[in-house]
Amino acid sequence: MTRELYKWIATFGVLVAIAIVMPTQLSFVITATLFGVFAMSWSFFTSFSGYLNLGHVIFIGLAGYTSAALNYHLGWPMWLCMICGVIVGTGGGWLYLNPIHKRISGLSFEMVSFLSIIALSNLIVSSYARPLTGGDIGLSPIDGLFSELWLAVVLALFLCACGFGFAWYLRSDSGKVIDFAREDQSIVRQAGADPHKYTGRLLLLSGLVGAIGGVVYVHYSGAAVVSNTFALAFMIRIIVMAIIGGRFSLRGAILGAYLVVFLSMQLMQYVDAYVQFLVIYGIGFVIYFFAPKGLVGIIDALWVRVQRLARPSRKPQDDSAGA
Amino acid sequence: MAREESVPVLELQDVNKVFPGVKALVDVNLRVEKGEIRGLIGPNGSGKSTMIATIMGNYRPDGGRVLYEGKDLAGVRVWDRVRRGINATNQTATYVADLTIRRHIELGVDVNHFPKEDVERVAEIVDLLDALDELPSALSAVGAKKLELGKVLTTRPSFLMLDECFAGLSFEEGEEMANIIKRVVTDYDVTVLVVDHNLGLVEQVAQVTTVIDRGVVIAEGPFQEIVNNLVVIDAYMG
User: Fold this and answer.
1) B16 near B64, Cβ under 8 Å?
2) CB of A173 within 8 Å of any CB in chain B?
3) Where exactly are the structural domains of chain B?
4) Which residues are CB-neighbours of B195 under 8 A, at least 6 positions away?
5) How confident is the model at residue A322 (pLDDT cuts 50, 70, 90)?
6) Would strands B71-72 and B63-68 be described as parallel, antiparallel, or unpaired?
7) Helices first, then strands: H and E counts in chain B
8) Helix (H, G, I), strand (E, B) or coil at B58
């Protein structure tokens, strides 16, 4: 794990360096880091458990809306609201999704998690919930976090600490069980364990990190609205980031998040939102179609090729040389 | 003074299992005593695998009771049955192709918090010690059967069901498996239920044999007695 720790320290160094050399682009750095949190936490559960979770935004949305609602309606201090938001987001999301993942798997789980976010996003904007959620306008103004270097550094530290924690967990004895649960749950049962206990823990950890990202994102955006919490488009954006970077790679999710946010911000200056999404989703499609392991997979393959080229080729010994 | 009756390791009392249009098990009664190697034979579709799945808890019986060491297993989930000492190998070996044989054998050790030395011990018994760091896809048919047995041995079972453990093996390979099973019984103090079509190999290992046909137990006793039973001959020959 020491090597893994060094890799995450290096990743942290790169993220901080980006923040330092781009002082005028801190909003890009902070937004990209937050999407890195979302994409990595989504990928942690989906890639390693074998369940395609389309409802990850439930953690993000519940946490974000709880924090925003407490701040907006009750005027509680932002930090207290954020803590409450994380507890409600993680607990609520897990209590909702964990029994579902225990009962159904495969396409059924995908459909239920997908329909859940559609239902929830409609509930949030419905007239029943409007007094609490602000309907389609959302909850604004709320106490905000601003584009400052300390926030970028703290978020990068959080992201890398979570990445290292995830990697450590996946290499632990529990992680080894998850390797089997992902491929064939009957092998885990035959070994005397409930596979859902292990995938459920993965869901909880993934949800906790997503919920922490959710409260920070809502306060950084200055508002809780469906489009930055429960929306299907928001979920798809997170998935596309993870896919572009590389499923089964935690650092790949961060790479994907940075690339997509950077591309969005660049395209925003020239084209409308529809074309922007067309380009980004198109890139996601092409990468997933031609390189399912994403950019990390491409980089790994290139690295192997470079190593092969760099290795001195063995020439057959020339017996006559010494004669 | 009346002799106290011993509690069997496994007892099935009037167990029924029905699938749509098929009675897979009909009032099945079975007693397996501690330390016994029991053979279970029957034609294709006779209910052998359903019986194993019902004992393991993969199927819930529609009637009757499954008792393990005198305790009713109703409501006990598969993994809890494994932790209580019941386990079964699959007809077709299950493995994850890109994880080593060592990882497969380690799984039961890790999950049950047994000492890591168990990995080598089990691998030695099932004759996979030299192949621990290989991938299971490299194994031959008999190798895959050994891996399947090794996986369940790491859970330290006291009652073990071997489903079609000789299927697809040559006579020599079958004999090799039979010897491993005999060693497992000695080393692990385990009671075994051997389920197979290969009557010759079942005869080699089993002390008592039960015959099942169309979900009904039709005969039970020493192998030689069973094979001369007209009902059994009729079931096999149609």
Assistant:
1) yes
2) yes
3) 10-94+155-237
4) B39, B40, B41, B48, B49, B51, B52, B161, B162, B163, B164, B165
5) very low
6) antiparallel
7) 9, 10
8) coil
Contact of A62 with A211, CB cutoff 8 Å = yes
Q: What is the set of domains in chain A, with CATH numbers?
A: 2-310 (1.10.3470)
Find the distance separating the first CA and the last CA of chain B, reported in whole Å: 48
Backbone angles phi and psi of A159, in degrees to 5 = -60, -45
Which residues in chain A are closer than 8 Å to B155, comparing Cβ atoms?
190-192
Strand B208-213 relative to strand B216-221, pairing: antiparallel
- ipTM for the predicted complex comes to 0.89
Q: Which CATH architecture has domain B10-94+155-237?
A: 3-Layer(aba) Sandwich (3.40)
Could you tell me which residues come within 8 angstroms of residue B68 by beta carbon, excluding any fewer than 6 positions away? B9, B10, B81, B84, B85, B86, B159
Interface of A with B in 38-77 (CB under 8 A): none
CB contact under 8 A, B99 and A190: no
Asked whether A26 and A147 are in contact (CB, 8 A), the reply is yes
Give which of B87, B107, B116, B156 to mutate to test A binding, by max A Cβ within 10 Å: B107
Q: In this predicted model, what pLDDT tens digit does every residue of A37-69 receive, in sequence order?
A: 999 999 999 999 989 999 999 999 999 999 999
Q: Does A172 touch chain B (CB under 8 A)?
A: no
Dist CA A39 CA A114 (whole Å): 17
Do residues A295 and A244 touch, judged by C-beta distance below 8 A? Answer: yes
Chain Cα centroid distance, residue A213:
9
Question: For every one of its 238 residues, what pLDDT tens digit does chain B have, with 9 covering 90 and above?
Answer: 444 567 899 999 999 999 998 899 999 999 999 988 999 998 888 899 999 999 999 999 999 999 999 999 999 999 999 999 999 999 888 999 999 999 999 999 999 999 999 999 999 999 999 999 999 988 999 999 999 999 999 999 999 999 988 888 888 898 899 899 888 888 888 999 999 877 888 888 888 999 998 899 998 888 888 878 777 777 776 6
Closest CA to B51 of B93, B76, B16, B79: B16
CA end-to-end span of chain A: 52
Report residue A251 as tokens.
């650092």
- DSSP-derived letter for residue A139 is B
pTM: 0.88
Strand partners, B66: B12
In angstroms, how far is CA B30 from the centroid of its own chain?
14
Contact A173 B110 (CB under 8 A): yes
Shortest CA distance from B82: residue in chain A? A192
Residue A58 host element (H or E): helix A57-69
At A37, which amino acid appears? V
Residue with tokens 């919930």: A129
